[in-house]
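Page 47, continued from p. 46.
Same chain as before, 147 aa.
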Amino acid sequence: MEKKEIKNCFKIGAISPVFIGESIAKHQHKKNIGAHQLFLGQVRADILGDKEVQAIEYSAYEVMANDEFHKIREEAFSKFDLICMHIYHSIGVVKSGEICLFVFVSSKHRKMAQQAIEFLVEEIKTNVPIFGKEIFADNSHTWKVNN
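Result:
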């Protein structure tokens, strides 16, 4: 059995709406798709104490994280009848209001796509070693707790 290539799932900085739109548009020629489902994670301007989060700086040991993304992708393809799947996570600084996670799946039927998205996002949040440092206006910071 041939080993699948491990893809780089990281994008430097925020994931732009243009990139998201172009990703969706690229699937119009695939006539066996009946449903697309996507998840967009956005940086919140949380208030911690008396400070508002201005941005999150994401870091990761990218080789290990991409390997984990690959395992999650393979498990999702084996559990759900998917046609396509794309996962992108930001690395570097992402300002509040910007997109930091883009998960996009396509299948013949909507329920399969919906179930796959739920599975993928939970697995990513639980298992991929990505770290977020919340940055405040005064340049102080705190490490983010995933939830």
